[in-house]
Amino acid sequence: MTLEGKVAIVTGGNSGIGKAIVIALAEQGAKVVIDFVAHEDATEELEKKVASMRDKAIGVKADVSKVADLQRLIDTAVQRLGRVDIMVNNAGIETRTSILETTEEDYEKVMEVNLKSAFFGTQIAAKQMINQGDGGRIINISSVHEDWPMPNNTAYCVSKGGMRMLTRTAGTELAAHGILVVGVGPGAVETPINKQTMDDPAKLKTLNQDIPLGRMAKPHEIGAVVAFLASDDASYLTATTIIADGGLMQSGPGL
Ligand SMILES: NC(=O)c1ccc[n+]([C@@H]2O[C@H](COP(=O)([O-])OP(=O)(O)OC[C@H]3O[C@@H](n4cnc5c(N)ncnc54)[C@H](O)[C@@H]3O)[C@@H](O)[C@H]2O)c1
Q1: Could you tell me how far CA 58 lies from the centroid of its own chain?
Q2: Is 140 in the pocket of ligand 1 (CB under 6 A)?
Q3: Is 128 in the pocket of ligand 1 (CB under 6 A)?
Q4: Pocket lining: 189 vs ligand 1, CB cutoff 6 Å
């Protein structure tokens, strides 16, 4: 498996799963554009780490909930690294509010960061890949919650359910251009988004008991799945989601 000569973009790439994806892609030889909105220092540190693996990484500040920023992100990748082969729509947030309490503002923010960003990230990256003429990979970081209800996190589940259909529909539509679109559905991963659970020993114990593998995933275990999906070895996967949850969906009652 090698990604030598490929250029990848990872949205929300300076934290948690995104950071692990950046490292996994760079380890296979890809040049990586690290999109971020916050923590510029963390992005610079990550750029240096990736550059020390002999390949180039650049950080680009872009709010992926805005189509103009997404366009600038992809244009910058092309201007500075020459092309785009792999687009990873990873940025995501959650509000953890009940459907009874979710405000219009909460709803719109979750939809814009999680779903609108992936929709237009797919559209703009696909146009660039079609211009290049030799296909590409679009990888949507979804969740087990694209399928599995999570009470008190309704807007998040709705956004990931939308991402599920984005992956299936765009994958079907873009297959003619050799662009493969695949989702990755992690279960519970040790990242800042789960700080509340990880900081609460009782909650963490219950969660771990619900996971057949007995523990949350490490971010690099999701990065490895993405690196495989970005490679030539994953040439017959499209319009589907790879669930990486340690068995959680088959047994747990929910987070
Ligand atoms: N951690 C888990 O258990 C888990 C499980 C399933 C799915 N996921 C998904 O994985 C993805 C990454 O989450 P994570 O766990 O690494 O959390 P995280 O909070 O560490 O990372 C989220 C990233 O998205 C970025 N982001 C937020 N709003 C943005 C915007 N407007 N523009 C650009 N970037 C923005 C953040 O700055 C951060 O870098 C999310 O889509 C999340 O839904 C996480």
Answers
A1: 18
A2: no
A3: no
A4: yes
Q: Do the strands 240-244 and 86-89 form a parallel or antiparallel pair, or are they unpaired?
A: unpaired
| Whole-structure pTM value | 0.97
Do 77 and 33 meet the contact criterion of CB atoms below 8 Å apart? yes
Q: Which two tokens stand for residue 192?
A: 């800042």
Residue 243, number of CB atoms within 10 A of its CB: 22
Active site residues: 156
pLDDT at position 11 over 60: yes
Q: Which fold has domain 7-244?
A: Rossmann fold (3.40.50)
pLDDT at 54 over 70: no
Position of tokens 């309490």? Answer: 101
Rounded to the nearest angstrom, the distance between the alpha carbon of 96 and the centre of ligand 1 is: 14
pLDDT for residue 51 = 86
Query: What one-character-per-residue DSSP string does 119-159 give?
Result: HHHHHHHHHHHHHHTS-EEEEEE--GGGTS--TT-HHHHHH
What's the length of the chain?
255
Among the listed ranges 37-46, 112-121, 217-226, which one has the minimum average pLDDT value?
Answer: 37-46
CA of 131 to the centre of ligand 1 (A): 29
Mutating to test ligand 1, I would choose from 93, 139, 163 the residue with most ligand atoms within 8 A of its C-beta, which is 93
C-alpha to C-alpha distance for 60 and 9, rounded to whole angstroms = 10
* Secondary structure letter of residue 253 according to DSSP: -
Q: Which residues touch 176 (CB under 8 Å, ≥6 apart)?
A: none
- Cα-Cα end-to-end distance for the chain: 34
